[in-house]
Design a protein that fits this description.
heterodimer; A: 65 residues; mainly beta; Ubiquitin-like (UB roll); five-stranded mixed sheet; 1 helix; 11% helix; B: 716 residues; alpha+beta; Aldehyde Ferredoxin Oxidoreductase,  A, domain 1; seven-stranded mixed sheet; six-stranded mixed sheet; 42% helix
Chain lengths: 65, 716
């Protein structure tokens, strides 16, 4: 199990940040992904592998409207 | 009819010659006052106290209106005013989004004070013509125009019987009439409305800017709360300002280099990053449609649902195919964000201009989501047509859309029928009926006369005259304080429910948009966190309206490393830019904390203004339940897993419970949460438990004028 934005998400072997974004339908472009307190640059999202128990924050920046 | 004939028919009612002013540090230090009842034209000083406390723009508007009316004044009384002002920063060309006009009046739909922030050239050209603000009071007997010549130095009030009322024609005629040549047209800005503003309570004002590439005047809207209805009730056909000679230092900045440096930082970001961020230059705010759909925030069928499989038919890529010229468009000089898009040679299929090819400023997110998704009509050409007619008729498209969506749901639920609608089968998805309804509203006939009064009055009419259940109407009629909701679903974000319902003028997103912070990022989990967000962000956004700024360059573009900052939602580097450009223009030395303080004064003053007009307490901050959660069985069942899980997590035993019982449980919980949110927000803002600023708060802010103290003392 991992945490994504404070909510539980089933862990799957080999899952990447990109997989998480797809699964959560996080399509907004202005996001910052932080795994266990460390910012992961955008160009690493497709390769960065999440580990079981990781805490992932996907911070959407837009304050909207 | 040619322009000469139109102009020849003008009858001069009054003229004032004036000495051309010079803008110093963002101010001309005087206001142009006009009374249309007795044709007074005079100069009023802008005092140091006004600049210190109210800054400009919306602040000036509120102050003038406060002094012009009493608590008994109604929107249609001659005492009511329309005040237009940009603000000290308005008119600079070095920083994106710095040409806004702020409009303040007493609203026909809310009965209280209304503010609007719009693009177009009027506000800056008015200032360069010598006036920080234009204050219009009184009512004319016949259609008039106000003309301000900022190069020759005179103002006139003239009867103008022959020009069109509808904005696309009025803007074109007055621009051509007052420009000396094709090149001179960019120096003319027109404020106009349309026939719909005469026939509804949701009239808007169009602010023109001449598009040199297309050779037409285009328009931005001060749309909310019936401002255009006040304008036409005063029998104003147009206000025209002319000023040629806009330069980089026309705004008289104290330190031009400071502004240039801030501007360069932002221009660079926009050029490098917009294409991988929000694509504002490419598609404008239309990019939001698919995002809102993905996050279940796009209003569908009168805010019942948050997404729809056909939303893809209204995506930004679809509209991009209609946008012409493929160039970034700005509504003031120097705006590299350039989000204003247009469709040229659009052939109209309905209405009085059927068959004509027109240029439409289309389509922004609110329009697409409102007349499109919220009415379940997923047809881009219908959206563009509705966009054109709402604008040229002078009707607020947000209120039109939210009113139509309400009517459609009422029709589908059998609350109203064909007899009542005059034969219109006004169901979700029926674009022909929707366009017919827009024409009825604009032209003031049939069922459109009822819909044009807005949601609040329709609720009353449907309950009193057609026997509808007032409780259901109150639950599904998406208005607060009498203003129709803008186009975001707030059910899953308690903070945004507050963002909407606590907003001074009613549920418009320009005061607060906290959904991602709250619902997605979960950055503000406690009541105190949400209250802090509902303290900071509405105040930060208020500041744009004091200074003549656009909100979009603040957070629709961000520095590449913004995510690494302590408070990314605030976009700290851009806050620094705003401090720099304010100081660069005014020569003052404010800090980022002063931005909040400046806004806090005006924001609290506006809250007290609501109180003065008979509102402004807790009971006026409570939204219809659909802002908070599912009203109907269909809504609950459409997201049953979400709601069931929430109830279980909250400790409710839902085993064997009916949907109706679960709706009731959820409602009790969410309504209680909303009340607790109000408690926390009022406390953070320095207000009483009933939502009135305390004496201590107004003293701290320096707005303890005798009449303010007398008023709020009764509510402590």
């Amino acid at each position: 199990m991992i945490k994504v934005n404070k909510e539980d998400m089933e862990y799957q072997e080999g899952m990447t940040i990109e997989d998480i974004l797809r699964k959560k339908k996080y399509t907004f472009r202005m996001i910052t992904v932080i795994v266990n307190g460390r910012v992961i640059p955008k160009d690493q999202h497709s390769a960065y592998r999440i580990m079981d128990g990781d805490n992932v924050d996907v911070v959407h920046i837009m304050s909207g409207g | 009819m040619d322009l000469l004939e139109m102009k020849k028919a003008h009858k001069l009612l009054a003229r004032m010659d004036y000495e051309l002013g010079k803008v110093e540090k963002g101010y001309t230090n005087r206001t142009l006052y006009i009374n249309l009842s007795d044709n007074t034209i005079k100069t009023k000083p802008v005092t140091e106290q006004m600049k210190e406390i109210f800054i400009g723009g919306r602040g000036f508007g509120l102050w003038y209106l406060w002094n012009a009316i009493t608590e008994k004044t109604k929107w249609s009384d001659p005492e009511n005013e329309i005040i237009i002002s940009t603000g000290p920063i308005g008119g600079i060309t070095q920083y994106p989004g710095a040409g806004k006009s702020l409009v303040v009046t007493l609203s026909p739909t809310t009965g209280s004070v209304m503010d609007n922030n719009t693009g177009g050239y009027f506000g800056p050209l008015l200032k360069f013509a010598g006036w920080d603000a234009l204050e219009i009071q009184g009512k004319a007997e016949k259609d008039v125009i106000i003309y301000i010549d900022g190069n020759s130095g005179y103002v006139t009030i003239e009867e103008a019987p022959l020009e069109a009322v509808d904005s696309h024609l009025a803007a074109e005629q007055f621009t051509a009439m007052y420009a000396d040549s094709e090149e001179d047209k960019r120096n003319v800005a027109v404020v106009s409305s349309g026939r719909g503003a005469e026939n509804t309570l949701i009239g808007l004002l169009n602010f023109s800017f001449y598009d040199v590439k297309r050779g037409v005047p285009r328009m931005k809207q001060a749309a909310r709360g019936g401002t255009g209805t006040v304008f036409r009730d005063k029998k104003i056909k147009a206000i025209i300002v002319k000023y040629s000679g806009v330069k980089g230092d026309t705004n008289g900045p104290a330190d031009k280099q400071k502004i240039i440096d801030a501007g360069l930082r932002l221009h660079r970001e926009i050029y490098e990053l917009d294409k991988v961020q929000n694509r504002m230059r490419e598609v404008g705010t239309a990019h939001l449609t698919e995002i809102m759909n993905d996050y279940d925030l796009l209003p569908v069928m009168n805010f019942q649902y948050g997404s729809h499989q056909d939303a893809v038919k209204l995506s930004s890529d679809v509209f991009k195919e209609y946008f012409t010229q493929g160039l970034p468009d700005g509504c003031w000089y120097g705006c590299s964000m350039a989000c204003a898009k247009a469709v040229d040679n659009f052939e109209l299929k309905t209405g009085p201009y059927k068959g004509q090819k027109v240029c439409v400023d289309a389509a922004e997110y609110e329009t697409v989501a409102g007349v499109g998704a919220n009415c379940a009509i997923f047809d881009p050409e219908y959206v563009i047509e509705a966009n054109f007619y709402c604008d040229t008729y002078g009707m607020d498209i947000i209120s039109t859309a939210t009113s139509m969506a309400f009517v459609m749901e009422c029709y589908e639920r059998g609350i109203i029928n064909k007899e009542i609608t005059g034969g219109l089968e006004i169901k979700f998805g029926n674009k022909d009926a929707a366009l017919e309804l827009i024409h009825q509203m604009g032209n003031g006939y049939g069922f459109g006369k009822i819909v044009g009064q807005g949601v609040r009055r329709m609720k009353k009419i449907f309950a009193e005259e057609y026997g509808a259940d007032p409780n259901l109407l109150n639950d599904i009629g998406m208005e607060v304080k009498g203003l129709e909701c803008s186009q975001y679903v707030s059910k899953e974000s308690l903070a945004q429910q507050g963002g909407y319902a606590l907003a001074n003028k009613g549920p418009q997103h320009d005061e607060a948009w906290l959904i991602f912070m709250d619902m997605v990022n979960k950055q503000i989990p406690t009541f105190e966190d949400k209250a802090q967000a509902l303290f900071y962000f509405p105040l930060f956004r208020t500041w744009f309206g004091l200074n003549g700024l656009c909100k979009l360059p603040w957070n629709d573009i961000e520095p590449a490393d913004n995510g690494l900052t302590d408070e990314p939602a605030k976009v700290p580097e851009h806050v620094r830019n705003y401090v720099d450009i304010f100081n660069g223009v005014t020569g003052k030395n404010i800090t980022k904390e002063d931005i909040i303080l400046q806004s806090e004064r005006v924001y609290n003053f506006q809250r007290i203004f609501n109180l003065r007009m008979g509102y402004g307490t807790r009971k006026y901050d409570i939204p219809p339940y659909r802002f908070m959660g599912p009203v109907t069985k269909e809504e609950y069942e459409s997201r049953a897993e979400r709601y069931d899980n929430q109830l279980k997590e909250l400790g409710y035993d839902i085993e064997g419970k009916t949907v109706e019982e679960k709706i009731k449980m959820l409602r009790e919980y969410r309504e209680d949460q909303y009340q607790k949110l109000c408690d926390a927000v009022y406390k953070r803002r320095g207000w009483t438990p009933d939502g009135v600023p305390t004496l201590e708060t107004v003293k701290r802010l320096g707005i303890h004028f005798p009449d303010v103290v007398e008023l709020i003392s009764k509510h402590q």
